Amino acid sequence: MTQTRIVLAIIAIALFTVYFLVPTPRATKERQQAAQPQTTTRSFAASATGEPTAQRQGRFALVIGNSHYEGGTWAPLSNPAHDAQAISKALRSVGFEIIGCGKPGPCLDGTRDKMLDAIRAFGRQLEASPGAIGFIYYSGHGVQARRTPDASDENFLIPVASDVEEEFEVATKAIPVEQLVDVMSAVGVQAGIVVLDACRSNGLRRTGSKAANSKGLALSESGSGGLLIAYAAEPGHVALDALPAGGQQVSPYARRLAEQLVVPGKSITEVFLDVRAEVLADTAGQQKPDMVMRLTRNLFLAGPQQPGSSEPPALVDTPRPEPPAVIEPHPTAPAAGAGSAAGTLTAAEMTKRGRSYERGTDGLARNETEAAHWYNRAAEQGDPDGEAYLGRMYLKGQGGLGRNEVEAARLFKKAAGQGSLVGEAGLAYMYTDGRGGLARDDTEAVRLLTHASERGEPLGEALLAFMYANGRGGLTRNDAEAVRLFTKAAKQGNDTGEAGLGVMYMEGRGGLAHDDTEAVSWLRKAAEQGNSTGETGLAAMYLDGRGGLARENSVAVRWLNKAADQGFPLAQRLLGTLYENGSGGLAHDDVEAVHWYKMAAEQGFAPGEAALGYMYEMGRGGLSQDDFRAVHWYTQAADQGDARGERALGFMYQFGRGGLARSDAQAEHWYTKAAQQGDKDAQGRLAALHSAPRASPARSFAPSASVAASGPRTAAQNLGDAIALLIIKKKARDGDVKAQNYLRSRGISW
């Protein structure tokens, strides 16, 4: 398959998960720049106080440090109070307000009642700030235990003055971590982060004989932009209170976390990956931090790097794909003459004036700032379409307005409540992605879109078509209905409808014959309105010379760069692929490939995550070889059903790499999932796994200790390895870049 065919195949798989999200131009290509007595173990984290109001809208942290336990089951700890202070200081510097036990600063030495009061105060603060970011840090004793003999293991925080001795007592005398997670999920945080700097072992007396069945945390994502749970130690292990060399006033984990939180240009995912690597090094492998990420978007807590700036960095979201650039209103507003006096305009005419400025029509030059001004005036007078268009400006950060999804959702909801079809479509968009503090709700999105589309609102038609194409919101997948709705929207000039119809022609879906010429026509219309799906699809057609187009790599790359610079993850992933393979007229450049893969991966785009995992596995593009990071990104991709991620994760399990215990059963599970999607490599690996055990690919190609222990390898198996190596060397000599990198990473010449 040619590289361009691969590009088109990726588009066919991915466009219908992201196509309708069309971002506005933004500079995304700036590189993220990154900036270090006696051993006591402790069991497992979080905080609180009322300090100056948090800068940069709604960032609140609950920080708890429990040191002064009274002995018995729970020994005193030296450093949790210092840990809590260090983390509080770091969080304040990136704009968080610390919520405590009734006084400024973190909650120190919390009894159960004090901890519950702090949790309630934290919840009230979040509830009063819809769409806020919540951060919980706990340092102290913790335990992984069961409420009853037949229950699954859960994580519990141990208050000071606790007399918990028996396992059944945790339900009434300790604090379940799930309660902290529920507080953030219930109020609809934009994103929630929970850090447990404590042990995850069980020193309690256990009754009953059932084996533990650890369920960890229930990661409810309802009403939030997702959750990240970070643990200072793996399940069943301890977290060190201090290093054996002594001298530190904070734990190894807290020290490294406080350092990493304030590094500009570092995403929250990278923060915790780097903390893990540093703690592993600091403790000589004694302490292995863990992480579970279920964020729907990534965050840069310390903001982008600002060279020479002494101001604290802003808290920013990862650039995300945004709503369509054109939202057509239901044509009910009276026209406003270009010469009308501003003082005599009705609210509806003000909205019309704003639309003219936004689109550069009716004799007015395009001016987003003027558009926002007129939408704001119309909204102040209660015009629902003015409110909806103003909401869109907030959502996209246009017209001099700061990007504010919460305000956008509020305006969409208000406009929709007054019957604005534009507001209904905008609100539905927010529900489809769970944004602006709203829980993802496909059913409500479909209800709103159905109402808007039945009344001729083109964006409603286009987004409803997307729901039919994917079978979401209780709808049965219906490609024919999707095509009908895309066509209606496209014929009204809606760029989302144009892009969707182009994709349907590209794939030959919904009763349409596969027609590259028609696909190019509609994709170009969308692209010329700044629609990223149109730009990306058109680029693919130029790469392959399809639809009547000459093969023009430079034009293709120009369109891809436009979409990628707007934050469109599919375009970013494809640009990375072209750089990695030196195709599409681009010189081979692994550093540039890694840059674009990171941009896509940090938006949660599964193909980008899998590609970034591979670059970490191979140690390419300026990255140090790092199996743990590779496994992290493969897992993120596999959890979203990405075949490459599933296959790669199976490989890591098969050979026990990246901190994973070797497991043929897990390898078979992930290979099977990838094979069922038609992944040929996975099908081959699955067949090989079923036929005989194989050794881990190593520089000597010698069997690992675990394989050797299971019995000698057969002559056929050794011959197979030798033949495979000869084939790989032949490919490398013939210029195959992947074969060369594979051999180079293992120190094998060719």
Structure commentary:
- By secondary structure, this protein is α/β, with parallel strands linked by helices.
- Among the domains are: 277 residues, Rossmann fold, CATH 3.40.50; 114 residues, Tetratricopeptide repeat domain (Serine Threonine Protein Phosphatase 5, Tetratricopeptide repeat, Alpha Horseshoe), CATH 1.25.40.10; 86 residues, Tetratricopeptide repeat domain (Serine Threonine Protein Phosphatase 5, Tetratricopeptide repeat, Alpha Horseshoe), CATH 1.25.40.
- Helix content is 48%, strand content 7%.
- It has 29 helices and 14 strands.
- Strands 2, 3, 4, 5, 9, 10 and 12 form a seven-stranded mixed sheet that branches.
- Helix 2 links the parallel strand 2 and strand 3.
- Helix 1 runs antiparallel to helix 18 and helix 13 packs across helix 14.
